[in-house]
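Morning, I've got a small favour to ask if you have a moment. I've dropped the whole record in just underneath, so have a look.
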Amino acid sequence: MTDASDNHEKFIELLTKYEGLIRASIRAVIRRTEDVDEVMQAVSLTAWRRFDSVTDVDGFPKWACVIARFEILKLQRSKARDRFELDEALMAKIVDEGAKDLLARGRRMELLEDCVKRLPESRRSLVLQAYAPGCSMRALAERLGKSHEGLYQLLRRIRLELKRCVDLHLAQEGERT
């Protein structure tokens, strides 16, 4: 495999991993879905063209969000006749804060997935069933032979257990930094 294809694969891997985060930071500033898509496409192309300049892949999401900020400004300038557009400084602050929040939220989601995997099989299965798309709590309670209220209480205890697990890992990470 050549360096160019390694670079290509790494870019695709990073863009795929952080696309949701980048898109959410764009969505925090841009209202229309079509405009979000347009900016995301411009960010992807610009990031690909400049990917050789990235020296720290851990900083990719923040770097891409900076590109998004400039692409948003371009879009806003091209639509300057629109009645309401955010001030550049405010927009930059929203994108920057959004990127920080999304990174933290992404880390919490990774930890939550890890904590769910650590649950005993019966509890993990219950959580996965309860939060599956289209799941009816009443139907699940009946299928498990539990009362509706009893199922909610059990899920509440499991959620608290998962929250404690995530908070503990975050605290441990904070001690290491």
Notes: The longest helix spans residues 88-118. Residues 1-106 form a domain with the Rna Polymerase Sigma Factor; Chain: A fold (CATH 1.10.1740). The chain is about 80% helix and 0% strand.
